[in-house]
Structure prediction request, 462 residues.
Amino acid sequence: MSDPNSTSAAGLTWAPLEPGYVEHVAENQPTRALLLINVCGFLMGYYAMPNQWFQIGWLACLTLPWLLLGGMQQLFTGLTQDVWLRCVIGLISVMVIRSSMFDSPGMGIRDLWVGWMSSGLLICLMMVLWQVGTVGRAFRIISTTLATTAALAAFGSMAIFYVLDERAVFGLRLTNWFVYGGWNSVCTGMTFGFAAVWAINRWCHATKRLEKVCFLSVAIFLIWATLLSMSRGALLALVAGHVGLIFSRGWRLSLRPVLLLVACIGCFQILAPQISKMGVRDLSEHLSRPKLTEEMVSDGVIASNPAKRLIMRGDSHRFSIYAAGFNSMTTPSDWLIGKGLWSSNDRWSCSLPWNPEHLHSVFVDTLVRGGVLALASFFVVLVWGLFRSWLLAQQGEDVWMMLGCFGVAGLIFDGDSAFSLLSVPRFETLILWVPLVFASARYTTRNRELKTVASAQVSASL
Prediction:
């Protein structure tokens, strides 16, 4: 049951903090505003900033003033109060130290300082995210900002790639035009799917009719944007997010979002033949090839039978990449402590006829870079974080379980490193650490308050 003193905002129960707990954040309006603007802007960067350096610049420019205005007093609160956060940051730190002190094949000086910066920024971001978890109504503001930005990015990308561009092709696999001028369809699908889950949760917990209509519309639109990317990983993550909701809340409370997802997938499957036909026609006109068929453009245009395409497309060479990674581990040391976070990709990709740039699985990457010890520790913090999310779901905060399951499932067959902020795909921090850090902050906050209330009751009875 939820705390009777808590209030509900889009399904997120908010309990007042104990007296004196992060009081500077609660009382200092400038630091609270800077925190929210900082995190909202950083998360918007996954949808609307050209590259990750804009995100890093945003994070640095707003974190420094926050620290100068009193944030330094709160920055380390999460480390002192939250044992899960200490373990996660400890794991990242151990990986960094291991990669610096022990042999990392092919690592150069540039890899070393960029790696330290990347992991250091991730740790800093986690502590900032944890602080936002202690600010009232923060999640309502963040979820609204994230879902709105994602919807606008999806709409703009569709308008440009499907209509406005001189070489527009209706039904092209959707990419986000606002990032790199056309972000990879897998990354686009992952980020839009993540925002869709948040919009679905806001719709489910909305109390006002206008809010319900708005978030239902945004949720449907973002689900479609995810499906238009034709990313199997993103679809798997969407399904996993809803499975997590069923597991934590039961069928009765999960029926509406599950039916919404099934309905969107069903409508997409029904309308796909017409979308594919229009796409092939547009490509035929652009290429001046009137006899172009769907099979000839199968990698670029939505298939007339998306379900069949997703099944028949094979593993996209994923297992060849994984095999190359495993084969590169030739010593007991490699299997125990890995090859290091910044070891050269050539050490595992040299056996492939092309350079895939990264291992396309956070879990495989953790094994190759950190060995069995790192992989086991990574599993522990993930299961621990999901368990905390499940406990919060029992009290009504099911968004963290949905987002956490989305992130974990999405990174099984995609993603690079979980221990760096700067990576080739970029989205690992967004879909994995953002929900788990927020959930841990909420869990720790609620536990501390419950202990305070219990202590006050005991004192009153005496």
